[in-house]
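User: What would this chain look like folded?
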Amino acid sequence: MKQFKYTVRDENGIHARPAGLLVREAQKFTSHIQVICADKTADLKRLFSVMGIGVKKGDQIIVTVSGEDEAIAARALEKFIKANF
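Assistant: Here's the prediction, encoded as structure tokens.
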């Protein structure tokens, strides 16, 4: 399992359009990918799941990746999140 933490800097948090892009990025990988914010957990490959946790600016998220391509997926997602949120 790989994991990383990130504090969201985007004024709008993780809202609809960028969340859709993030989900598409996560769907490129076979690993199981979750995002945790406070006491809520979401499947990063499902848009409504991600939107349902309501990530706001200043929230710290933890992304966990487990599976055969976890190392590549974790690096790619961390880079994507840092560039977009």
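The mean pLDDT is 97. If you want, I can go into more detail on any region.
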